[in-house]
Amino acid sequence: MDKKDLTKLSRKSEITNKIVLVMCYIVIAVVLFCLFLPLFLTIICMFKNKQEIFPTEFHLFPINPTIDNFTRIAYLQYTSIGINFFQSLFMTLLVASISTIMSLFVNSLAGYAFARLNFPAKKLFWIITLMTMFIPGITILLTSISVVSALGMMNTIWVLIIPGVASAYNIFFFRQFYLGFPKDYDESARVDGCNSFSIFFRIYLPSSATPMVIMGAGTFIGYFNSYLWPTLTIDSDHAYLAQIMTTINKLFNDASTQGYGSVLAASFIALIPAVIIFCIVQRYIKDGIALTGVK
């Protein structure tokens, strides 16, 4: 090829790259638009009254902005559903926080045991643990309810926490992370007189900030968004234990009297903890991806 042909090829390549880049930007813009449009409409409708949400003539922005939807949530007990929104939000945050701490401790310890310890039937237990990842939770829902009922945990805070603490996926994640640790750490620590628990708490646990934050964020959001399990295990006589998604659902069912604006306002307030969690763990997620790439 002469220089002219090479020049033409390079120009074609540049044009192709620019077209691909433009197409990527268009796809990203469409995806972002689809993602943020519902949130944008939610924010707007929070400040509309009951008549403006479903008007005869469409208006994107509220004609008479109001904060009545927020005041209803803040000052009313919602006697028709028997649940206070902010009490439900506090209880959900409490349950999610306790569950996350317990889950991280149990699953990281189990991951360490499968990665570094030798015990009888280890492979069998590991296979059983992995098998639970392929069982849909809905298929064992009735059995799980029977178990917690027999243990006397129904309508208590523990029925919202204990059943979801152990997670095969989290155990698998921690095990794979701990397998990347050099065995020299264990050998040196044992020479210094440390047992298995001391090695875990002094070496492995302090070095697990990234997986702890990533798994903790996922666990927290999972508990926070839980709907079906709290609905089936907590009855209306124990409304103080109601979780936020159950409360929002009852608000939605009662929207004919309270208005859909209150439902949207409650949904937006419930979204705030998840956004805060994401902002906190964003850097650790990037570190986790980089760490995975290095390994």
Radius of gyration, in angstroms, nearest whole number = 26 Å
Classify the beta-strand content into a percent band: under 5%
Give the overall average pLDDT. Answer: 82
Classify the helix fraction into a percent range.
Answer: over 70%
The helix/strand series, from N terminus to C terminus, equals HHHHHHHHHHHHHHH
Structural class: mainly alpha
**Largest pleated sheet:** none
Number of strands: 0
Low-confidence stretches: none
The N- and C-terminal alpha carbons lie at a distance of 42 Å
Query: Shape, please?
Result: flat
Question: Tally the helices: what do you get?
Answer: 15
Task: Characterise this structure.
Helix content is 72%, strand content 0%. The chain is mostly helical and 295 residues long. α13 runs antiparallel to α15. The longest helix has 43 residues, at 3-45.
Key attributes of the depicted protein:
295 residues, mainly alpha, 15 helices, 0% strand
Short account of what is shown:
It contains 15 helices and no strands. It has 295 residues and is an all-alpha fold.
